[in-house]
Amino acid sequence: MVAAIYGPQKITVDAKGRMNFPAKFREKLGESFVITVNMNNVKHLKVYSEEDFEALAPKMQAMGKTEAEAANILRFLQVNSQDAKPDKQGRIVLSAELRKHAGIENEAIVLGAGKGAEIWNAANLAEATNDKVKENYADVTKDLNI
Predict the structure, then answer these.
(1) Strand pairing of 81-84 and 8-12?
(2) Smallest Cα–Cα separation from 102: which of 88, 123, 133, 75?
(3) Domains of the chain
(4) What is the pLDDT of residues 91-103, one digit of tens each?
(5) pTM, whole model, 2 decimals?
(6) How many CA atoms lie within 13 A of 36 on its CB side?
(7) Which among 41, 80, 86, 105 counts the fewest CB atoms within 10 Å?
(8) How far is the CA of 83 from the CAs of 48, 54, 92, 137, 144, in angstroms?
């Protein structure tokens, strides 16, 4: 089992979509990994180890109520995903489609998310962690003493 990884890192993205993927994430995710869109309409990207992504596909497919719907869900996942294998300098290339989905232009924030990672546009991340979200977090966690 892969240990959790945490913490954000701001990364420069060039015009061709190249970005240096942080070493601490590469160490946890392996020599190659999969980047895909987030499925819950929040505009960011999810990064999975190949093993975790392979385990995700049947779970996604099982969400379909019919065989055709299951095939469509799996197809959506495949069409909106890419393999990533960092070069010797640790750079990966984000496809234009994935960058467009997440609103990533010349800068991204790579954020640890349990066993995987997320890639965000700074404005989208700020919206996802706004004061209302912080208020809700405080309400949920107050009984946990954290």
Answers:
(1) unpaired
(2) 123
(3) 8-121 (3.40.1550.20)
(4) 999 999 999 999 9
(5) 0.84
(6) 23
(7) 41
(8) 10, 12, 10, 33, 38
